[in-house]
Design brief:
Length: 310
């Protein structure tokens, strides 16, 4: 267990121990009563790799693979690999006996490299003279898990009766409010928590759980905040233009539908000759109706002539 110096809401501090949460045992592979041992074997030697074979054999590379096994070194391949020391290799595969200065690469959240610098020694600040204090910024649990990514969780443990009462009171206060409180190091809690020398800086959130005399005071650590991507006006405007385009396409069929209306015009042309023919036939009927009138007058003229002759 490691030490942390933490203060409560009233500013009273104490040296407390912290440990990681208990991990449930995982099931063991194999049959009950039989122990499994994993071994590692050498698959290929450096001289049997593709680059080395291509450089040494040249154009005869394919024929050598067909006729034999030049990639297999019978003296080395298949040997068991025992625990060994780690070495660094250069870009050309040579062993580096002196590693150059370590460079710290700073990247944006999307992976873009922003800066490179020589790392500086950063001491731990959770056991310094200034304790880890409450910043007064509280947040509902459901909001905290949606805004931050918690990478580690530590459980604060008591070592005696006084530290038990100290931590139990803190857990009771947080459990009653249903919130987590942001804690920080340095004056006013403005600095992130660095648990060990040259360690990763974290934001700390205290959560309390109480069950009668039993309690749990958890310190959640986060170094990543979840943020909604900024809206791009150009991308948001583009779909609107695409949606407007089909409206023009829909308008085009309307013109095509209007075209058949002109096709009805030949019907009027066909009706015009029929009307002219009917007009030509109409005078003939009138003339035929007018002929009987003179025939009715002729008999009257004959009678008058007969009278004159008598």
């Amino acid at each position: 267990m490691r030490n942390i110096k933490i203060a409560n809401a009233a500013g009273r501090d104490a040296d407390i121990k912290y440990i990681g949460p208990p991990v449930a045992p995982t099931p063991k592979p194999g049959l009950p009563g039989h122990q499994i041992r994993f071994r590692r074997y050498l698959l290929a030697a450096p001289t049997g790799l593709h680059g080395s074979l291509q450089a040494s054999l040249g154009d005869d590379y394919a024929k050598a693979l067909i006729s034999g096994d030049p990639e297999v070194d019978v003296e080395k391949v298949g040997r068991e690999i025992v625990p060994s020391a780690k070495v660094f290799l250069s870009s050309d595969g040579q062993v580096m006996h002196a590693v150059p200065t370590v460079i710290e690469v700073i990247s944006d959240p999307d992976g873009t490299e922003r800066d490179r610098r020589v790392p500086t020694n950063q001491p731990s600040n959770v056991t310094s003279e200034l304790p880890v204090v409450w910043t007064g910024k509280t947040m509902a649990k459901r909001d905290a898990v949606r805004r931050f990514v918690f990478t580690r969780t530590l459980a604060l443990r008591h070592t005696n009766g006084l530290s038990f009462d100290f931590l139990h009171a803190m857990a009771t206060e947080l459990a009653a409010s249903g919130e987590v409180v942001l804690v920080g190091a340095g004056k006013g809690g403005k600095l992130p928590l660095v648990l060990q020398d040259n360690g990763t800086p974290y934001r700390g959130f205290l959560e309390g759980r109480v069950d009668g005399e039993r309690f749990a005071l958890l310190l959640h650590l986060s170094n990543m905040e979840l943020k909604r991507p900024a809206a791009d006006p150009a991308k948001d405007a583009a779909p609107a233009k695409k949606d407007a385009a089909p409206a023009k396409k829909d308008a085009a069929p309307a013109k095509k539908d209007a075209a058949p209306a002109k096709a009805d015009a030949p019907a009027k042309k066909d009706a015009a000759p029929a009307a002219k023919k009917a007009a030509k036939k109409a005078p003939a009927k009138k003339a035929a109706e007018a002929k009987p009138e003179p025939e009715a007058k002729k008999p009257a003229a004959k009678k008058t002539a007969a009278k004159k002759t008598t």
